[in-house]
Protein: NB-ARC domain-containing protein
Amino acid sequence: MFDVGKKLSIPGIEDEKADVKRLVKQWLSNQPDGQWLLVLDNADNQVLWGKRSDTKQQEFSLVEYLPRTTNGSILVTTRSRQVATFLAGKQVIALSPLSLDEATEMFTDGLGTPSPAENRTALETLVERLARLPLAIVQASAYINKTQLPMQSYLNLLEKPEATVIKLLSKDFGDPSRYKDAINPVATTWLISFEHIRKYHPLAIDLLSSMACFHEKSIPRSLVWEDSSEIDEVDIIDAVAVLTGYAFVIQQSDSIEESYNMHRLVQLAVRNWLRERDTLHDWMKACTIRLARLFPSRNHKYKTTWTRYLPHAQRISESNDGEDFPERYQLLEKMG
Structure:
């Protein structure tokens, strides 16, 4: 804000005791000549904007420094749906995922050279593996451009063990379109979001941690948490909303049970984050115990449930994280 105030030559802005944010607000509110546009980029921390998940959190809010006038407009970018709706109400513009054509075009633009026609299949496969995420696409194209690595070789790296994939996604890259202090690697960006959710939404991070232990597709609600009087349903709804708001999880419903999808790269990042915190072992154990208890015997009567749980039982039984829990052998017996 100080740089903005100095650029605008606001009187008193360089005073040591100046309330810089308030001076900028007053200047923008009272500016009669011309229209202005204020851009607030990466406004992801809802507490800073005055939206608190409990009354014990700080009362300081940046909202009081936002000018309210018809003389200008404020554009806010955020990864948090909750922040967006809190600040903009009904004026939220949700960015839809890139189409396949848009994703491949972004990748090709990042390379700076047209992709040969014979590479089209590999290119489409690559952007799909990157979940069509703009930041991941730009990072991958920059890495390939820098190392002259063949596209197929980069694809092969994405199939390597988790540690290799995370290392690849943690590579920094230069992006002149972003401001100089921007955090570029996609894995680092996600880790910051995980820490923020852990601090302000502990139930949401617990749900995300559980989901990271199972297969990434069609994770049944019953595997993530059990209906209990200890956790209010409203709290669960709010926690899931946090995860879907960050696009870490996609919620889906069918006639049988609510379930969730995670992209593989997000799941790998969560598992790596848990591993660095030395808690992945504990989460794997808890999820193994829960699944072993809920997984039905191979009986025609329970065929639907058995089929729905099977991919998750296979993922846990094949995992190398943690020790061999007795419940793993129970799962293997029930899987047949």
